[in-house]
Amino acid sequence: MCECCNNHKNDIYLPQLATITKRRMLNGTELYLHLEMDSGKDLEYSPGQFVEVSVAGIGEGPISISSSPTQKGLELVIRNVGSLTRVIHKLEVGGKLGIRGPYGSTYPVEQAKGKDLVFICGGIGLVPQRSFIRYALDHRNDYGKIIVLIGTKCYTMRLFREEIALWQQRKDMTVMETIDEAHDCWDGNVGVVTTLIPKIESDLPSSLVMICGPPVMYKFVLMALAEAEVPEDRIYVNLERRMKCGVGKCGHCQINEKYVCQEGPVFRYSDLALVPEAI
Amino acid sequence: MSKPRVAIFDFACCEGCQLQIVNLEEEILDLINLVDVVEWREAMSEQSHDYDIAIIEGSITRPEDEKRVLLIRSRAKILIALGACAATGGVNKLKNNFDMKEVRQCVYGKDADLPHLDTYPTKAVDEIVEVDYKIHGCPIENSEFARVIRALLLGKRPMVPDYPVCVECKAKENVCRWEYGETCLGPIIRAGCGARCPTAGFRCFGCRGYVDNPNVEAAREVMAKYNLTEEDLKTRMVLFGSKQGPTL
Amino acid sequence: MSVLKFTREQFENFVSAMVKSGQSVMAPQAKNGRFAFGPLQSAADLRLDYDVTILPPKKYVLPQTQTLLEFEVGGAFRSVDSSQPMILLGVHPYDVAAISQMDELFSQDQYDKHYMDRRCKMTIVALDVVTPSENVFASSMGTATVRKGYDLLLTVLKDGSVLAEAATEKGQQLLKLAGSSTPASEADLSARKAIWESNEKNLDKHVLKCKPSYLPKLLDHSYEHAVWEEMARLCYSCGSCNQVCPTCYCFDVQDFVNWDLKTGRRQRCWDGCLLENFATVAGNHNFRKDRAARYRHRLYRKGKYVPGKIGGQIACVGCGRCITACTAKIANPVEVYNRLMEDTELG
Amino acid sequence: MSKNISINVHHITRVEGHGNIVVNVKNGTIEQCQWQVPEAPRFFEAMVRGRRFDDIQTIVSRICGICSISHSFAAIKAVEDALGLEITEQADKLRLLLHYSEIMQSHTLHVGYLVSPDLFGEKSVVPLVSKAPEIVKKIIKIHRVANQWSELLAGRITHPITVIPGGFSMIPSEQQLKDLKKQLEEIVPDLAAVCEAVLSVADKFPAFERETEYISLKQDNPPLYALFHGDITSTDCNGDGPVPVREWERVANEYVTPQSTAKWTRWHRDAFAVGALARFNNNAELLSPLAKKVADMFGLKKGNCNPFMNSVAQLAECAFVVENAIQTIDALLSKGLKQEKVKVSPRAGRGSGCVEAPRGILFHTYEFNKNGECVAANICIPTNQNHANIQKDFEKFVPEFMHLGEDGLRHGMEMLVRAYDPCISCSTHMLNVTFVK
Ligand SMILES: Cc1cc2nc3c(=O)[nH]c(=O)nc-3n(C[C@H](O)[C@H](O)[C@H](O)COP(=O)(O)OP(=O)(O)OC[C@H]3O[C@@H](n4cnc5c(N)ncnc54)[C@H](O)[C@@H]3O)c2cc1C
Ligand code: SF4
Ligand code: SF4
Ligand code: SF4
Predict the structure, then answer these.
(1) What is the distance between the alpha carbons of residues D23 and D413, in angstroms, rounded to a whole number?
(2) In a domain? residue B176
(3) Res. D121 pLDDT band, cuts 50 70 90
(4) What is the Å distance from ligand 2's center to D371 Cα?
(5) Do B and C count as touching (3 or more CB pairs closer than 8 A)?
(6) If you measure from the C-alpha of residue C299 to the centroid of ligand 4, how many angstroms do you get, rounded to a whole number?
(7) In chain A, at which end, N or C, are there fewer CB atoms within 10 A of the end residue's CB?
(8) Could you tell me the pTM of the whole model?
(9) Mutate which: B156, B160, B162, vs A, most A CBs within 10 A
């Protein structure tokens, strides 16, 4: 009578092993990893989703997928902030990580077709956005303009420098970068990322705007977008929260009633109207 | 890979925390497989100045001890304060409720001024040098000690609870001391002991020190709800009202 | 299904048979002047007249610590199954309701086999309340009696005899252990009905001034209410209210390694949204830093958030445990909800 | 043989607390020979002033991590004496049982972990593991059982929680006591094996004797090898004993010396000894059969004055406490255990308490005001009582064993200090308070 015992379900907490195939420090604290699943099967994911990354014995944490499903393997960028991330930083090529997922919501890759895309990235916020940027570049004809704003605290912390340089050479996208504090080697924009918003050459209110950055950034960017009269249902925010299980059980990632691991991390801003804890 | 070198030192204390390490019994052999214990006066005769991890037990009550702590810090890569005396000052801080001269007089009478009986207000180790990790408790829980050491050896930040004793007390399914009309410091004291005292029928007297952000102000009003007075609480604050952290 | 009647002695024989059945039997017993569920060694220790247990029986469906995986450090993981056959004997209706809610939460969307495996091997024997506890308000929450969520339902009649009705196959199986009994008479059944009716009215040490189904709407308008700050001023952030609650199920996950530093296990353990660092992330950013925000979150989860996930059922079953457990005496959901009701009616 | 010897053991190892040995021999004459106690003083007697009577035992238990149970009991007895409290027979038996566990814990730790490396020629117990694995395993097992025994009754191995003035805050279940009894019965053969092993190296105990005064408790009613109750007696007592516990200050006669932060004591002569050997010398006839057998194995007889034999007396006491604990458990179970409610109200008064700590007789005295707050305290610790005796031993030992050379002498003196099982951290908390009359 008890059906549940009969169908042997998978263990949602059981990670699959993946092997590090490439690794490179992007700056002093951020490590880039390219992984391949030991099963030989690529994960099926969409831009915006994340995986739960484990080192057995140390722990587990959510990490955004930075690669695009159009490429092979899985790319992650990991900031060294604590136990798990410190140990991951010590792993070499050939090292093993446990992977669960992908989990969470995705960027509106389908609805965005034909529209101009504006990405506003603060610091490590570029990492998940890059997944959609690359996806859009790989499906270039499906989308209108692609505009990427990148703000970084200081010159030395800039991520994906070569890739950004390549993007900047492309005629079919606009990339603007700024750093918070002036630096001798930097002759570009100085100031927080919001200072770039007025420079956007596109019809902002009809574009889709994707935001990801540190907690403090959202408020100011959203204010600027409100001024530019971007409707709230065209804004997507990518939010971080404490997260343990990644599958809607442990309760840590809740923003009011919303579980970031299920309804997020990518939220349409208009859906957050009754979610005061969000921003 | 050479094993990390560990040294254990003791200052003013009862050495009960070291005893807790001894009480790991067979597990000490596991520990010794992983590290070289190069100095541990209570248990062995060898001594060394070359170590990676220094474990300090006891609180600091004399200028010469303070010098020794500075020396240990300068030699150690990781410094661990072991037990309440080292981590918060422990029960020794009760002394700080009095004038030092009077304290010496009280204990040694007419001989109080002999130089070797000198003392100053008790300090925790982190009042003198930077402490990397604290293992709380009077005495420590040796399972926690084991967990912290293993975490360090794996390069992991050891988990030190920052939630109150009530969490563990409830998990043990104890009847709350407050329901018996007693005061208990559980709601503002750092957990990690498995709520030993309430579980054994005694109130929590705060040997692990306060949680990071204790709601001490609430205590006064809560006392009133139980028809108890502030006086009832005063001598019952952390480690019997010794001067460490917030008091009423 | 038919209702059986056991005399006191027949019932004790039934319980003894359960104890001897080889399954572990968890049942309410006296503990330091209060009650707690624990392994039953002898029928004599069972307390059918208990008022409420300090911890709810959730400790058996979602243990305080539960090993999920075993691993080789830096290597592969293996799923661990800690489930074993178990009889939960003497569960009050409000706790049955709470377990049903958790069943739903752990099986919906992503199926949690660690929870469900335990749950599936469990036989739940419900028991109508004999002695109301000092803070129970199940009457207000519609959980004073239950008609589903258990395998067998027991009702103690005034003369001490016990009625038993199986609701599932598992319940029937369990009844097979029983020795002699008689079919319940009409009079017995109406006596049982009278007990139900009485409990539905009388488990009312606190009275909610609205229907529970109104709570989500009430909370829609109460986010900025002064009550959160006022109450939380005395909150110790001790999480006792979370721990003792039959419907709180948040957990933390941690890895523990053995002395060989080569093997270990991943465990989950109870956590609580009232605890200071429940929502703290790397960089020490705490997304719910204020006591009041955490205090509010619990009452929103009970009254609005969780109901949104389980078809509107309110995630407070009125056991009153949090009211007793809170040393600051501020955790009473009814008190807060009624405050909000008054002010909403006024405004 | 060298004519010049300079020994300066700064902080002797494998003892609890800090002690120094200083010896200076120039051209065969001893210029300096000193036992020093430089441990940081902790001033417990000053600290407890103002604390409530029901917190005293928890505070003073922190005097010493090894004999915390003894300190708690001495304090509780003093508090009960001051407040005029009677305890039930059940509580008294449970206390005795708990006290035995500490004797077992401490003696095993001392003989097994601290002294045996000397006998087997090792620097610590760690290398012993590969040299004599079977014996070390047995020592560990006995120590673990002793610890579990304490934890069961006290709520914790060190710094007991459950013992409170008037009785217990929590007692074990009958089933737990039955399980304990089983464990105790199981370690009897292990204990015998450890005794055999020590016997096999007993020739490493130096043949050294010095006649001195031995002080301990003596219990007459009913007669029992005194570890927990009794009056004060001494091998020098000739009709002037036994002394009631309340008058212990007349026995201890504490004084301050410049070579020590701990106070020293004297009674009938310039020094006296306390501890297992003192208890044996006063009460040997009351030992249990197995304990007597252990003493006989080593040829230990009443009147022995070789301080190194203290370790053997400890082994005999281990056998005694196990045997007597089993009887005590039987006595408790035969009456059935009852949870007893303890209700105590404060009153003004002064009281003293005494127990035999593992390393010797321990005295506590407190005075309380009418609110039950402590106004004065006096504590006298066994290790202190031995300090002067250790010094006198040194003065005889150094000339007798000078032929061993510097290393041999140093080792012998370290062993001699260790034989007393000194607990130096606890010995630095004593005082002489003038009581407020
Ligand atoms: C959806 C999502 C996507 C993310 N994507 C990325 C990404 O692409 N790259 C990236 O680098 N990071 C990302 N993060 C953040 C990343 O998950 C954390 O930085 C990481 O898990 C930290 O783990 P750690 O073990 O190294 O740090 P820890 O050592 O666990 O902790 C660091 C800090 O976290 C807090 N903390 C953690 N655990 C506890 C605890 N048990 N008790 C109290 N405080 C605790 C504390 O403030 C602590 O100082 C993402 C997070 C989310 C939710
Ligand atoms: S007894 Fe103390 S620690 Fe336990 S729940 Fe009550 S207040 Fe908290
Ligand atoms: S919120 Fe309180 S009354 Fe409601 S179910 Fe939880 S513990 Fe019981
Ligand atoms: S039990 Fe009371 S004091 Fe503790 S967290 Fe809950 S509401 Fe706050």
Answers:
(1) 10
(2) yes
(3) confident
(4) 26
(5) yes
(6) 12
(7) N
(8) 0.91
(9) B156
Map out the domains of chain C as residue ranges: 3-202, 212-343
Same domain as B111, residue B71: yes
Q: Are C26 and C40 in contact (CB under 8 A)?
A: yes
d(CA D369, CA D375): 7
Confidence of residue D435 (pLDDT cuts 50, 70, 90): very low
Judgement on whether residues B134 and B32 belong to the same structural domain of the protein: yes
Residue B160 placed within a domain: no
User: Of the ranges A106-110, A186-190, C130-134, C146-150, which one carries the lowest mean pLDDT score?
Assistant: A186-190
Q: How confident is the model at residue D12 (pLDDT cuts 50, 70, 90)?
A: low
Q: State the ligand closest to the CA atom of C317.
A: 3
B-chain residue closest to A90, CA distance: B155
If residue A89 lies in a helix (H) or strand (E), which one and from where to where?
Answer: helix A83-90
pLDDT, mean of residues D307-329: 96
CATH of residue D274 = 1.10.645.10
pLDDT at D433 (0 to 100): 27
pLDDT tier at D15 (50, 70, 90 boundaries)? low
Atom nearest to B218 CA in ligand 4? 3
Would strands D163-164 and D29-36 be described as parallel, antiparallel, or unpaired?
Answer: unpaired
Ligand 4 center to C307 CA (angstroms)? 22
Q: Per-residue DSSP letters for D74-111?
A: HHHHHHHHHHT----HHHHHHHHHHHHHHHHHHHIIII
Q: How far is the CA of B187 from the centre of ligand 2 (A)?
A: 6
Annotate C129-198 with DSSP letters as a single string. Answer: -SS--TT--HHHHT-SS-SSS-SEEEEE-TTS-EEEEE-SHHHHHHHTT----EEPPHHHHHHHHHHHHH
> Which chain B residues contact residue A61 at CB under 8 A?
none
Quick check: is D245 in a domain?
yes
pLDDT of residue B113: 66
Question: Are residues B37 and B124 located together in one domain of the fold?
Answer: yes
| Chain B neighbors (3+ CB pairs < 8 Å) | A, C, D
Query: Which C positions 203-232 lie with beta carbon below 8 A of chain A?
Result: 220, 223
Flag if C277 and B162 touch (Cβ within 8 Å): yes
Q: Which domain holds residue D104?
A: 44-427
pLDDT digit string, tens, across residues C178-191: 989 999 999 999 99
* Residue D28 belongs to a domain: no
Using the predicted structure, report yes or no on whether residue C345 has a pLDDT greater than 50.
yes
Domain count, chain D: 1
D16 within some domain: no
The structure tokens 């002489």 sit at D432
Domain of B133, in residue numbers: 5-153
pLDDT at D139: 93
Instruction: Please check whether residue D23 lies inside any domain of the structure.
Output: no
Tell me which CATH code domain A3-103 carries: 2.40.30.10
What does residue A61 show for φ and ψ, rounded to 5 degrees?
A: -155, 155
Per-residue confidence (pLDDT) for residue D10, from 0 to 100: 64
Burial profile D110-134: b = 16 or more Cβ within 10 angstroms, e = fewer: bbbbbbbbbbbebebbbebbeebee
- 3-class DSSP state of A173: coil
Residue C343 contacts A where some CB pair is shorter than 8 Å: no
Partner-chain residue, chosen from A12, A60, A242, that has the shortest CB–CB distance to C112: A12
Of the residues B10, B11, B15, the best mutation for testing chain D's interface (the one with the most D CB atoms within 10 Å of its CB) is: B15
- Domain ranges in chain A are 3-103, 117-272
Return the higher-pLDDT residue of C36 and A198.
Answer: C36
Cβ pair B22, C247 in contact under 8 A: no
Question: Going by CA atoms, what residue is nearest to atom 1 of ligand 3?
Answer: C316
At residue C263 the predicted structure's pLDDT band, cuts being 50, 70 and 90, is very high
**Distance (Å) from the C-alpha of residue A82 to the closest C-alpha of chain B?**
7
To test the ligand 2 pocket, which listed residue (B176, B180, B197) has its Cβ within 8 A of the most ligand atoms? Answer: B176
Residue nearest to atom 6 of ligand 3 (CA): C245
Given pLDDT bands bounded at 50, 70 and 90, which one contains residue D125?
confident
Q: What is the pLDDT of residue A1?
A: 36
Q: Which of D13, D44, D380 to mutate to test the interface with B (most CBs of B within 10 A)?
A: D13
Mean pLDDT on A127-139: 96
Residues B193 and B140 in one domain: no
Kindly tell me if the per-residue pLDDT of C193 is higher than 50.
Answer: yes
Residues of chain B with pLDDT under 50: none
Chain D nearest-CA residue for B11: D40
